[in-house]
Amino acid sequence: MENKISVIIPIYINSKANEVKEALESIISQTKKPDEILIIIDGPVIQDVDFVISTFIIKNPQICTLKRYSNNLGIGVVLFEGVKQCKYDIIARMDSDDIAVSNRFQKQLAVINEKNVDIVGSYIGEFYESKTEIRNIRVVPIKHDDIKKFSKKRNPMNHMTVMFKKNSVIDVGGYSHIAGFEDYYLWTRMLINNSKFYNINECLVITKSGDEVYKRRGGLSYIKNEIYFEKKLLKAHYITFIRFIINVVTRVCVRIIPNGLRGLIYKTFLRS
User: Fold this and answer.
1) Long-range contacts made by residues 190-194, C-beta under 8 angstroms, separation at least 24?
2) H or E element: which one contains 112?
3) Residue 70: φ, ψ to 5°
4) pTM for the full model?
């Protein structure tokens, strides 16, 4: 029997109506149609975004479920609640400002079935102004062993690209609220729990990048969360003390430099 797919897409105060519309249209236009789309509104959103969501649900009433929170709870909380509420065991993640390539779900579902993995992601293509002009690609390791090795120093999965088995996420306690690291911490706990990982070496999602994205990767608050996350990995004996020091020192250096220089480092050294 063909696998059924749930899709989770959270919407926030900063979500833009045109981007939400494109994201939702890329979900419904997949060659492998989703069987459920769980739209989570995390706190207040602008009226135009509400209109886009309402219109989309009216057009696709049989597969859309709307969950609305009056206050912003944060990505970790709403995603884990979403995972638990999904009807089907295969769940795909989407962000409200990203666009899925039309055969994304089809390709990822095939990998889950053929390679018997618990989670599959892909590369992402980044654009600045026009989505037809991909400027950078975030390449991630393909095979499980390489993903696990890479995860000790950097996030091995592009969060907005992943498709995973519901039970594999629930078994390790789901998403936790470590701002900026909810997904990375989940992957490490799944790897410790012997979940099988895979990445497809194609850009199956495209996303907008630029100064605002790099700005969110800097500052004192981000540094505190990052050190807290690295301490979690050290306490779990997932990384050595030496790796902990290397990770913290290199990351703090990137977080405290001016945003323009940080963006240059991302584009030059952390992207292809």
Assistant:
1) 190/118, 190/119, 191/147, 191/148, 191/151, 191/238, 192/236, 192/238, 193/168
2) helix 104-115
3) -70, -30
4) 0.91
The model's pLDDT over 183-227, given as tens digits with 9 standing for 90+, comes to 999 999 999 999 999 999 999 999 987 666 767 777 888 899 999
Backbone angles phi, psi at 64, to 5 degrees: -95, 135
241/235 Cα distance (integer angstroms): 10
Based on C-alpha coordinates, what's the Rg of the chain?
18
For residue 129, pLDDT beyond 80: no
Enumerate the domain spans of the chain: 5-209, 211-272
Q: Which residues contact 171 (CB under 8 A, 6 or more apart)?
A: 193
Give the contacts of 244 (CB within 8 A, at least 6 positions apart).
230, 231, 233, 234
Q: What is the pLDDT of residues 224-251, one digit of tens each?
A: 999 999 999 999 999 999 999 999 999 8
Provide the CATH topology of domain 5-209: Spore Coat Polysaccharide Biosynthesis Protein SpsA; Chain A (3.90.550)
Write the DSSP symbol of residue 256: H
DSSP type of residue 3: P
